[in-house]
């Protein structure tokens, strides 16, 4: 029974994460989450880059961005994304219902992967990639293709 | 990432990538990779439903009755794949059914062939002396030995953030198979719904053999909402662990996964 409740609660947290990220789809957290931090400065280094552009895609922004609280069958839940230098480095649960004193375990099972989502493929020092099967055309632009070329 | 020997070839509509540590003998590597690629091309010739003359196309439309299979030069391979398809159908309660793919339903073992063929190709590399290698079969991976002084590091893609990784697995001997809708859309047939499965974003299975890791990952995609429970039960009775990405519930994994993906354990 506890297992069932736990799985429902982590489901709810997953939903909160999705919803809270979505709610910021036009703002800074989204661009930081999707790693869109490159090319945000004026390309020629000239003065006064487009204000709109720099507002939309802040390079290296840091901060904690809270999502909207949502109601679930287990109470109100709210999370925040921690952005450091434009990368998602942590996700904090600001508010959630404590089911049988197991909140720590909920955090443990929901958060680590979300942290590692910030992992950059190029910084990860990997040898090979596992993912949905690419076509031979899709391979050309794939990370696997870059790794294959990096051999001696 | 640096200091490896690599070789690639196109096969089965995707690209096969082989790597070995830098101290692998270059001539041995060249001969072994050619043999592995020949193995994959032959598997494609036998099992492709897109080639009209392939034994699978002929089984599919009745030109090659199973009763006549014994005389076919590739009978052993065909029987092996048919047995895998039967086992997957039984283990998934029919959610993965190679005999009911498409509309109208037809025999199509594609969901089980690539992992099996890559497993054969990896064994071929070993047989030719390249005992330490990684083989990437268009997103499914088999590794053996090590990559110099450390395990092979296998990046698992993030289905919702193209070009980025969800996690990194570290393996010395084993397989990492991932099924998902990112690259080619919904393409795994759900025979119960009568349409391609699209409930889950991605399923990754890690275990000893790529044949079964790939079969289980594909079957889990077809299982959709029931996949995680099925994979959890699978992990309890076999050496196969899973990581499931569901846009509704986030990312979940079976208890053995942190053995392969250290970040899952250390981040807790």
Automatic annotation (TrEMBL), chain A:
Pfam families in the record, alphabetically? FMN_bind
Q: Using the record's annotation, list all stretches that form the FMN-binding domain.
A: 73-150
- Name the InterPro entries for this protein: FMN-bd (IPR007329)
Q: Could you name the domain of life of the organism this protein comes from?
A: Bacteria
Note down the stretches annotated as region Disordered: 25-67
Q: Where is the composition biased (Polar residues)?
A: 37-52
This chain belongs to the protein called FMN-binding protein
According to its UniProt entry, this protein's organism is Actinoallomurus oryzae
Automatic annotation (TrEMBL), chain B:
* InterPro entries in the record: ApbE (IPR024932), ApbE-like_sf (IPR003374)
- Asked whether the keyword Metal-binding is assigned, the reply is yes
Name the chemical reaction catalysed here. L-threonyl-[protein] + FAD = FMN-L-threonyl-[protein] + AMP + H(+)
The answer on whether this UniProt entry bears the keyword Metal-binding reads yes
Its required cofactor(s), as named, are:
Mg(2+)
Q: A single GO molecular function, which one?
A: transferase activity
* Protein EC: 2.7.1.180
SUPFAM superfamilies, per database record = ApbE-like (SSF143631)
Identify the keywords attached in UniProt to this record, alphabetized. FAD, Flavoprotein, Magnesium, Metal-binding, Transferase
Question: What name appears for this protein in its UniProt entry?
Answer: FAD:protein FMN transferase
Q: Which organism is it from?
A: Actinoallomurus oryzae
